[in-house]
Amino acid sequence: MSTLPNCPKCNSAYTYEDGSLLVCPECAHEWTLQAEGGDSGDQKIVKDANGNVLNDGDTVSVIKDLKVKGSSSVIKIGTKVKNIRLVDGDHDIDCKIDGFGAMKLKSEFVKKI
């Protein structure tokens, strides 16, 4: 009998090892055994310009004029951005700005409202 844990996503008992990863054949979810023990070490904390912790769904305000790459337009200081989504990468906020559309912003140029 296998001593591998069930899949954390779909709770399937048919998990198997693939190198250092555990894989679920039913939902194709992959994870490590360390992630199973506790996610607090893997979770990246994103903070705004004032040091406040940002979460998905927060509303933020732009703290300086930002040039839009590939365009002559500018996102003005004080622009409200609602319902942000945190992502990995250099630009760690994914959002939609009225009048501009989908954008990626750096957390160092926004403050939480």
TrEMBL record:
Stretch forming the signal peptide: none
Residue ranges annotated for the Protein YjdM C-terminal domain, each copy included: 46-112
Coiled coil: none
The organism's place on the tree of life at top rank: Bacteria
Pfam families, per database record: YjdM, Zn_Ribbon_YjdM
Domain Protein YjdM N-terminal, chain residue ranges per copy: 3-32
TM region positions: none
Listed InterPro entries: YjdM, YjdM_C, YjdM_N
UniProt record similarity statement: Belongs to the YjdM family.
Protein name per its UniProtKB record: Protein YjdM
